[in-house]
Specification:
This protein is an all-alpha fold and 305 residues long. The chain has three domains: 85 residues, no CATH class; 79 residues; 130 residues, no CATH class. A two-stranded antiparallel ribbon has the order 1-2.
Length: 305
């Protein structure tokens, strides 16, 4: 009952107060962040889903209080605003019937794309069942977790976006083939979780200096991301994790890698420094080598499911 009450409060507060600039966003943010803690820890799958919703809701509430995203037409009606709040990626209203029809067709393509990803995710899940020793090697486990997380997460997002786009409202892409990234900057800036990238750019990077102080801005963005992920683990399992601080270390390492990449490009030119296939392999190696810092804490969630 408390969970449902908080969910209703967040929705009503955002739609009737924050959307109209009539009240502070903080009551809705605090209520959203408390939602996972009202769910029993034995219901780990539901609690984890609630934790992800809490983070997305927090980002959306803050965005709403600061102007409501890129397309103001999404805030003109309560129904559109509700869709905007619940679907993470940026969305926009079609300009005409032709644009709406094109959006619906693209949405069906995303649903098909999700269907095509499903065998890969199920195959990786079967691999774990029939070859559990994959978890005995930290690097093999990291690569396995990276692949199944990408396939599973993007398939779910494609389903949500594909269904929402049948209304004619366009939903921005959330991922762009992240495994083809050629560098840390390419991965985080152009391919992985673009909703979070855009949100951090608007509300963290620019306010703390932006392009005038890019090193400071980049490191603060990655530090903030690490702290957000620490919250995700704590809220999901209900106590401090065994791997406390690992998420923050992971994101700071990648923030430093992005800073080094940008500084190198400014000093010696943008390159390319390696052929595309070699750059992709090198970045995947870097991602795999650092991934245990990310998946160690997440493993505490999965082990309780």
């Amino acid at each position: 009952m408390l969970t449902v009450t908080l969910l209703a409060f967040v929705t009503v507060w955002n739609l009737h107060n924050v959307r109209r600039r009539a009240a502070s966003p903080w009551p809705a943010i605090v209520a959203a962040l408390l939602v996972p803690f009202t769910i029993p820890v034995d219901w780990m799958l539901l609690r984890t889903a609630a934790t992800i919703w809490a983070v997305v809701s927090t980002f959306k509430t803050w965005e709403l209080a600061r102007g409501g995203g890129g397309d103001p037409r999404m805030q003109q009606t309560a129904a559109r605003a509700f869709l905007w709040l619940e679907v993470p990626q940026d969305s926009r209203v079609p300009d005409d019937d032709a644009a709406a029809s094109s959006t619906r067709a693209e949405g069906r393509h995303r649903l098909l794309r999700a269907l095509l990803k499903t065998p890969g995710a199920l195959g990786l899940w079967a691999l774990e069942i029939y070859w559990p020793s994959i978890h005995s090697n930290v690097w093999g486990e990291a690569l396995w977790a990276l692949l199944i997380m990408w396939l599973g997460m993007t398939a779910i997002i494609d389903v949500v976006a594909g269904i929402a786009m049948q209304s004619g409202i366009h939903v921005a892409e959330g991922f762009k083939t992240p495994l083809l990234a050629r560098s840390p900057r390419d991965f985080w800036g152009h391919r992985w979780n673009l909703f979070v990238h855009r949100w951090f750019g608007r509300h963290i990077f620019r306010p703390v200096g932006g392009l005038r102080h890019p090193i400071r801005g980049t490191l603060i963005v990655f530090l903030t991301s690490g702290l957000v992920h620490e919250y995700v683990v704590v809220a999901a399992i209900g106590h401090l994790p065994q791997h406390i601080g690992w998420m923050t270390a992971f994101f700071l390492m990648h923030g430093i890698a992005v800073v080094v990449e940008v500084a190198t490009q400014r000093r010696f030119g943008r390159g390319p420094w390696f052929p595309r296939p070699a750059a992709i392999c090198l970045h995947l190696l870097w991602l795999t080598l650092t991934a245990p810092l990310f998946f160690g804490p997440l493993g505490e969630i999965f082990n309780k499911m």
